[in-house]
Design a protein that fits this description.
Layout lengths: L7 H4 L17 E5 L3 H4 L7 E4 L7 E5 L2 E4 L10 E2 L7 H9 L9 E4 L10 E7 L2 E7 L10 H16 L5 H15 L5 E2 L11 H4 L6 H4 L6 H4 L5 E2 L9 H4 L8 H4 L1 H7 L11 H7 L8 H8 L4 H13 L25 H4 L41 H4 L1 H4 L22
Antiparallel strand pairs: 1-8, 1-10, 2-3, 3-7, 4-6, 5-9, 7-8
Helix pairs in contact: 4-5
The chain binds a DNA duplex (13 and 13 nucleotides) through β2, β3 and α3.
Subcellular location: Nucleus
Pfam families: GCM (PF03615)
GO molecular function: DNA-binding transcription activator activity, RNA polymerase II-specific; RNA polymerase II cis-regulatory region sequence-specific DNA binding
Amino acid sequence: SFLTWSSPSKLKSDTKQFDPFQEWTDGYVRYIYSEDKNAQRHLSGWAMRNTNNHNCQILKKSCLGVVVCSRGCTLPDGSRLQLRPAICDKARQKQQKKLCPSCNASLELLPCRGHSGYPVTNFWRVDGKAIFFQAKGVHDHPRPESKSETEARRSSVKRRVSSPPFTPKRRLIETQVDNIKTTPAVYRISFIEPNFPQHYPAFQSPEPYYNPHNAVGEAQPTMQKPANPRIYMGRPGYEFQGYLTSPTYPMTSDLCDPRSIMPNSDVSWSLCRVPPVLGSSSSSTPLSAPLTSTCSSFDPQSKSPAGWKELLKSSAPYGDNHHYYSTEYPCRYPGNAPSSPAALQTIITTTTKLPSYQSCPKPSAGLQSYQPCAPPKLPGLPSCSSLLDDPSSSYSTEVKVTEESGRSHQVSVISA
DNA sequence: CCATGCGGGCCCA
DNA sequence: TGGGCCCGCATGG
C-alpha cells in the first residue's frame, strides 16, 4: 500500500508541505520528503542494508542492528560502545572479528528484531520530486553511530594511522585510545541510560562536535515542528487497511489518497507488542482519531509515543551481554505480544515485481489530509513523558546531513 | 575499502 | 505469492 501514497505533486505542490528529513526514524511512520539529499540517498541513522524485494519501484532496506561489546563494558566516558554495523556483508564479518577498543572483548552484533521479530524495514519510493518513506517496526536495540559519525571516525583513524611518528607499539595503543576518544558519543550508550542512548542525546553526544549528527530524528519533530509527521505509529498488524488492501497498483493508488486511508486507520494499539502488563492499556485508543490531532499526538511531545518508548527503555536494560534478548525486552519477543508474529506482520508488500517503477500508475488523490494513524494513547501506560525526556528532542534541530549529497534514486514508495 | 543498488535465486509459510 | 535473505555484479566515493 505504500505504493499508493502518491500524488505529492498535487497535494504537496507546496514544498513547505514536505516533511523535514528524519535521520532516526523509529516506529511505524511515514514521511514524504522533497528533494532532500539525504532522502535521495535513502539515508538513515540506523544501519540499513538493501534487501531485494523484487520490486524495482520500491527500495527496501532492513536494519542490521548495532555492534556492541560482548561484555557490555563501559567506556572511559561511562558510555557503551555502539558501533554501526558495516553494511557490506564482507566488511561486517571483518568488523565482528575485531575486538572492543575498550576492553578487548569480542564484539557482538545485536540484530534488529523490531518488526515482528524481523529487522525493522524502511521503504523508499520516488514519485516525481516527492520521496516517500515508510518504516515498519520499532528498533529494539540502541542506536549505532550515525553514518556521518562512522565516516568521520574512519577518516580520523586513518589519518592517525597513516600519520608518521610513532613506534609501532605506541601507535597501536594510541589508535585504540583514539578510537575510544573519537568514538562518537552517539554510538556509546550512556552509563546512566544504558538502555536506549538514543533517547538521551545529551549523554550520547557529550562532545559538541557530535551533536549535530544526532540532531535529526523523529524525536525532533518537536523541535523542528515538522509540518506533520506522517507517523502512523501503529504496531505491527495495525497498518491501515488501505495499506493492507492494495489495489491493482499497490504503489499508487490505495495510499494515494491519505484521506481514504485514514478512515481505515483504525489501528488499535491492542496489537502492539506491548509487555503484557502494559499491553491491555493500549487497546482503548484507536488510531482513528482525527488526523490532525492524531498526528500531532505523535509528536515527540506527545505523551503516547513517549510512553511507548519509555516502556521500551525501562524494559530493555542494556547491561549485560544478552539483555536484549531477555524477556525484559518485549520488542525482541513477539511472543510477549498479544498477537503472533504473523499477525503483526506488516501489510506493506513490496515484492510485487513491477516493470519499472516509473511506469507505475501515479496516485491521483491528494495527500493533504494524509495522516497516518496517530498513535493511540496508551491508557495503561504511566505518564509518557519519554518524548519530552527524549534526549533527541533536545538535539539541535539542525540536521547535519550536509555531508551527504547524493545522487538521487528513484524509489517507489512503500506500500503498506 | 566499502556503501549502495540491482536483480537472480532459494527457502518457507 | 510474499517476505526474508544470500550472493554476485556494478558503480562510485
